[in-house]
Design brief:
This protein is mainly beta and 240 residues long. It contains four helices and 14 strands.
Length: 240
């Protein structure tokens, strides 16, 4: 390891987050309709490399897994050194599902996606992200979104966002038992955050997720138990 790379790691910035959600919805899939706790940690270096570990822990006995991590995601990414209003990230995410097999859910125990995302520093901050599963699914998911943030005071910010997702035929076959490409899900959210101290903040949000395609809605109800869901969450973040 070169001295420059070592120095960058030493100067790395970190953030620890803990979220509490009334349910866990991922890309329109209601993975748990009961309360969950989702801790995470990100380490970012000045040269653009970052690592993230994130987990979902059931907070109730609904799925008989209270206090256990039902999912752990490990991400390695790189923020390209672009100048101006354009930002771009590339990377890979490894998804681990420790209890899928023993719960008989029909899902995989582990899979990996590569991704690329682009954002514009203009009004409504549009983003576009492409994920491709190179392991179990061999399919793609694309998400486009817009958002707006308003600084009400020096400590309080208000946020709103809209997004829409599209899945390829292989992706939809794996997650929704539908072998056609479709626009899958849409989500709207509003939230607020409050800076308690330097690097420390709390937040709250409410979001609504909806599956757009009728076939996917019907299949999702059979697989995941629900077709659409409104959920709320609280968050705590500390950056250092």
């Amino acid at each position: 390891m070169g001295l420059l790379a070592l120095a960058s790691i030493v100067r790395a910035e970190s953030e620890i987050t803990v979220d509490y959600g009334s349910s866990y919805i991922w890309r329109g899939q209601v993975l748990n309709s009961a309360a969950v706790v989702q801790p995470g940690m990100t380490v970012s270096t000045p040269i653009g490399l970052y690592l993230n570990a994130w987990g979902n822990m059931d907070a109730t006995k609904k799925n008989e897994l209270a206090g256990k991590f039902t999912e752990v995601d490990l991400t390695a990414g790189y923020s390209l050194p672009l100048e101006g209003m354009v930002s771009m990230d590339i990377g890979a995410i490894n998804y681990l599902f420790p209890y899928n097999s023993e719960q008989g859910e029909g899902g995989v125990d582990e899979t990996t996606e590569v991704f690329a995302s682009i954002g514009l520093d203009v009004i409504l901050a549009p983003t576009l992200a492409v994920y491709y599963d190179v392991d179990e699914v061999k399919g793609a998911y694309v998400n486009a979104g817009i958002g707006y943030s308003y600084a009400a005071t020096e400590a309080v910010s208000l946020d709103a966002g809209l997004s829409i997702g599209w899945g390829s035929s292989k992706y939809n076959e794996s997650y929704f038992d539908e072998d056609e490409s479709r626009f899958n899900d849409a989500q709207a959210s509003i939230g607020a955050s409050y800076a308690l101290a330097e690097g420390l903040s709390i937040g709250a949000k409410v979001a609504y997720s909806y599956l757009l395609d009728s076939t996917i809605r019907d299949n999702a109800e059979a697989i995941y138990g629900q077709k659409a869901n409104t959920y709320a969450g609280l968050s705590l973040a500390y950056a250092f």
